[in-house]
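Hi all, long-time lurker, first post. I run a small reading group and we've been trying to get comfortable going from sequence to structure in the token notation. Rather than ask abstract questions, I figured I'd post a concrete chain and ask someone more experienced to write out its structure so we can walk through it together at our next meeting. Sequence below, copied exactly:
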Amino acid sequence: MKKITLLMIIGGAFIFASSCKKDRVCECTSTSGGNSTTTSVTLVNVTENQAKDVCVSKVYYDSNGNVSSTDDCKLK
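-- Answer (accepted) --
Happy to help. Here is the structure in token form:
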């Protein structure tokens, strides 16, 4: 019984922590033609899951289907 109660408390704390709204930073490194630049965007008052949905890596292709540039994004 103690193990079940402890697991319920830990699980509840994890769910609460992941649904906590706060400011989060998404950092993206863009690479094109061998050059790279890094930009940071602050996402205001969002949950971790919302931030992950917005902060995603992307690959861009040219008209021949070759990779022309990439955005490697990570939640900080």
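A couple of things your group might point at:
The first helix runs from residue 2 to 18.
The two ends are 38 Å apart (CA to CA).
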